[in-house]
Amino acid sequence: MNESKIADEQSSEGGAPPLSFDQCWELLAAANVGRLALVVDDHPEIFPVNYVLYDRNIVFRTDAGRKLWGAMASRPGAFEIDGYDAQATEAWSVMARGETVLMTDPQETAKVDQLGLEPWQPGAKSHYIRLKPRALTGRRFVVNRPDLWETNTNDARRALFE
Fold first, then answer.
1. Do 133 and 96 form a contact (C-beta atoms < 8 A)?
2. Number of folded domains in the chain?
3. With CB atoms 3.0 to 4.6 Å apart as the test, which of 33, 96, 100, 144 could cross-link to 133 if both were Cys?
4. What is the model's pTM?
């Protein structure tokens, strides 16, 4: 993956500074749940998945079904994570785009298992899927201070003020 190509694709929407290539990987490494976007039956679907990073790839497990079928359809996929730091009043988002590939090498899947990739839901989840990023982008931005009288009580921004 060409780091300069990735940096060129990043935009600073609304003045939000783009994250560097390394910052994107650090945030991906620190999290373990994200959203996988695939085209299934000619329309987009989004699946929450727990994952690990293996050899600069995002790897998750799944059982037979729509997610596996979509991942094996030789179409590009996207993967996204985001977060909010209440103390810093900053939010961030990272997105990877690339091809999804079924992992079939038992030595590779054993290495992935050693990284702690276990299913969160009941079931075998015996299929390992790798998203090979061709583009990796991210941004970080300062979150507006909430209007304490008007903002929903479950809004994460209220945490510092209550």
1. yes
2. 1
3. 96
4. 0.78
